[in-house]
Specification:
six-stranded mixed beta sheet; four-stranded antiparallel beta sheet; binds magnesium ion; 10 strands; about 230 residues; 7 helices; Rossmann fold; binds adenosine-5'-diphosphate
């Protein structure tokens, strides 16, 4: 069973009189534990594709299923549960809430998990600390976002996406604003989470050097998805 299956996905945006085809007839099987990179020019449909996989945007046509359940059959409560419990999002523009500390920002996504399933608060604190240590920012746990550099805020947002033990990380240029060394450290962290926790990664990147390090390489071109040869 595929973890995620996309069958003939098309997304059309109506812009005034015109229909803009952002994603065209994309089919893709993602297996649990895959590490996929997606490259492609700006405007080629990468973000739209990720947001459909994440249940944020509804396709115009085609089917998306997660572990054999059709996203369109989940209903709005089911979809929020899916987004909250199964998916970790790293958005293109990492946004932390400025009036919450780093730790509170990490705990925020856990608030949306239903009470009986929420882990004890102390365990969540431990998890937040452990993730911050992994991204090298444990010493900033009580800082406010405004006291951090852009790159540090980005790393906090990266840590936050793992808080609910996601099965799949959808990452939209997650390291674009980091220096080369920190970027590689984050990729190494992703690889470790992929290997040890079995978390699936679908990562959009502009960095072909990073894409080369991934197991499956895809390219979006004008809304269509192409497979790139590995190790190119
Ligand atoms: N909400 C929207 N409404 C209208 N057009 C959109 C919307 N989101 C994206 N688009 C258009 O769809 C195309 C693909 O965008 P996007 O998925 O953001 O590409 P990428 O992430 O590869 O830069 C672009 O032409 C963009 O302008
Ligand atoms: Mg984008």
């Amino acid at each position: 069973m595929s973890q995620i299956k996309l069958q003939n996905i098309t997304k059309t945006y109506q812009v005034g009189e015109d229909a803009l085809v952002a994603v065209q007839d994309v089919s893709l099987d993602i297996q649990s534990g895959d590490f996929i990179s997606i490259v492609g020019h700006s405007g080629s449909g990468k973000t739209t594709l990720l947001s459909m996989i994440g249940g944020i945007t509804t396709p115009t046509s085609g089917r998306i299923s997660f572990e054999d359940t059709d996203l369109s059959a989940m209903g709005s409560d089911g979809l929020s549960e899916y987004r909250c419990r199964k998916i970790g999002f790293m958005f293109q523009f990492a946004s932390l809430l400025p009036m919450l500390t780093v730790k509170e920002n990490l705990l925020l996504p856990t608030m949306f998990v239903p009470e009986p399933e929420r882990t004890y608060a102390s365990k969540l604190d431990d998890k937040a600390a452990e993730l911050l240590r992994s991204v090298g920012l444990l010493d900033k746990i009580n800082a406010f976002p405004g006291q951090l550099s852009g790159g540090q805020q980005r790393r906090v947002a990266i840590a936050r996406s793992f808080m609910n033990n996601p099965k799949l990380i959808l990452a939209d240029e997650p390291t674009g604003d980091l220096d080369e060394k920190t970027e590689q450290e984050m990729i190494n962290f992703f690889k470790a989470m992929n290997r040890t926790e079995g978390i699936t990664f679908v990562m959009v990147t502009h960095n072909s050097e990073l894409a080369r390090q991934t197991q499956r390489r895809l390219k979006m071109h004008q809304g269509s998805l192409q497979t790139l040869p590995s190790g190119e």
